[in-house]
Amino acid sequence: MKKNSKKYSYFLFLIILISVFWQCARRGSPTGGPKDEKPPVLLFADPKSGVTQFNRNKIRLIFDEFVVIKDLRKQLIISPPMENFPIISPMSASKKLDISILDTLKPNTTYVFNFGSSIQDYNEGNPYSDFKYVFSTGNFVDSLKIKGKIKDAYKPKPDNFVTIMLYEYNENYKDSLVYKDKPTYVTNTLDSLETFELNYLRKGKYILVALKDKNSNYRFDQKEDKIAFWNEPISVEDNDTLPPYELTLFKEILNYKPARPTQVSENRISFGFEGSTDSVKIKPISPIKGDFKYIISKEPKKDTLNFWFSPKQSDSLLFAVQKSQKIDTFKVRLKNMKPDSLLISNSFSGELPMGKNFAWRSNIPILKVDTTKIKVFDKDSLQLPFKTKLDENKLEYSLLFDKKYNTSYRIEALPEAITDFFGNTNDTLRVNLKTKKLEDYSILKLTIKKELQFPVILQLTNEKGDKTESELYFESAQKEYVFENINPGKYKIRIIEDKNKNKIWDTGNFLERIQPERILYYPNLLEIRANWEVEEVWDE
């Protein structure tokens, strides 16, 4: 009986002991009642925030409850930036945080540690938001500030975690600093803001730049980053007189750089490039046969030029590739490869949208077309007159004819109607098309009261804004802007101010101090149904 009593007491003791440890492990986590939504409270900082003549390498923060650190590398912004990221410990739950500074601090400088939302309570994850710890290595804390807003050149809303930077503007400043040196001051919009504020600044002149800094290195990488800049140096003198700065992020066109060309078929060499291929000239400079001929075409939606040549060469070809004053030479050793076969596809099949033209698309440049072998018929088999258009790359051949609603069309091309660069010709081509009824479409009438810089490109896009469904171009202001033949769906409207009048949107360039062309987005999403006539007024 005594043995059983001892066993019972022993197990009871174990249960009580485990319970005590469990409660300790939970660190006072509530078992019921309202959810804790209060953030941690900083009880003590050693040294205190705002201290001057700072000459230590360690800071201690003490909170009223257990805290943890989350996304420290993203959330903690130190201004001026440090070469070595400080050590914050412990990373596990604790009521105290120690900051170990690894850098040699600059003299007479105000430092700001903006922790963003990285410090959170242990139980519920409530952040101690936008906590800033400030100290100065000099006799006073700098107190000036600037503020502003971030926009995106092409999207309705900017990215999050945008870095805003100030570079001291003096006799040593060069624009190349943005590519290789860290800024004088820095802040970040973090994950939820489109506005920014740079605090604790010293009086002076600065260059204001923003980056979507993918590598988080405070340096502009043209391949990876978006950039924004204020056109002129800014003067930080008096907080009461500084206007808010609006910065527009854009992705630059990459600097021109040719890649080594490669042979991709028996009679085609592909030239790849970084940057724009506009005005690029490719010329063979090696000895060639007298009957040698070539043609160059741009590959659709790629920065690639195709060099088509005939007849086949036995050894190699040497090329000069020129853009402006830059000339590169490349040698391509030729191999035995299969020739390209002529492939012709239809731009539309089945439905022919009103306002669009039917076209044949070729994979090899088109050399000539015999229009006598091409016929367009309506639903009554009546032959219709048409005009033709060959695009500048000689890869798309369009047929232009009058179209009616709810009408069937038949288009035929007899053999040898289309001849490509190598003399290949088509087999018989036939396609049946039909337009939709008038009542299947809608009309959008837009009155714009905003002040615009003409000419403008007016675009109707899909809901995501990544596909243009319809486009209009206007040299001057109109009483009404009308989109016709709109399919039912959800749409956005945007306006591009075409400053250089080339009928496309152009991005900016930091070194050339060119801002991207302005884009305005209509604030409302439009839902359009069949047979509607929609009227909208844009006055915001």
Entry summary:
The protein has 540 residues and is mostly beta strands. It folds into five domains: 42-136, Immunoglobulin-like (Sandwich); 144-249, Sandwich (Immunoglobulin-like); 257-333, Immunoglobulin-like, CATH 2.60.40; 344-436, Immunoglobulin-like (Sandwich), CATH 2.60.40.3710; 440-538, Immunoglobulins (Immunoglobulin-like), CATH 2.60.40.
Mean pLDDT: 92
Q: Name the shape in a single word.
A: globular
Task: List the total number of helices.
Answer: 3
State the end-to-end CA separation: 89 Å
Layout: helices, strands, pairs:
Blueprint: H1 2-25, E1 42-46, E2 58-69, H2 72-75, E3 77-79, E4 87-89, E5 94-100, E6 110-114, E7 119-121, E8 132-136, E9 144-152, E10 163-168, H3 177-180, E11 185-188, E12 195-201, E13 204-212, E14 226-229, E15 234-236, E16 245-249, E17 257-258, E18 262-265, E19 268-274, E20 281-284, E21 293-298, E22 304-310, E23 316-323, E24 326-333, E25 344-346, E26 350-351, E27 358-362, E28 366-369, E29 374-377, E30 387-390, E31 396-400, E32 408-413, E33 418-420, E34 429-434, E35 442-448, E36 456-461, E37 468-474, E38 481-486, E39 489-497, E40 519-521, E41 526-528, E42 533-538
Description of the structure:
There is one protein chain. By secondary structure, the chain is mainly beta. It has 5 domains: 42-136, Immunoglobulin-like; 144-249, Immunoglobulin-like (Sandwich); 257-333, Immunoglobulin-like (Sandwich), CATH 2.60.40; 344-436, Immunoglobulin-like (Sandwich), CATH 2.60.40; 440-538, Immunoglobulins (Immunoglobulin-like). Helix content is 6%, strand content 42%. The strands form 11 sheets. Strands 1, 2, 4, 5 and 7 form a 5-stranded antiparallel sheet that branches. Strands 10, 11, 13, 14 and 15 form a 5-stranded antiparallel sheet that branches. It is globular, with a radius of gyration of 33 Å. Residues 36-137 form the SbsA Ig-like domain. InterPro entries: SbsA_Ig.
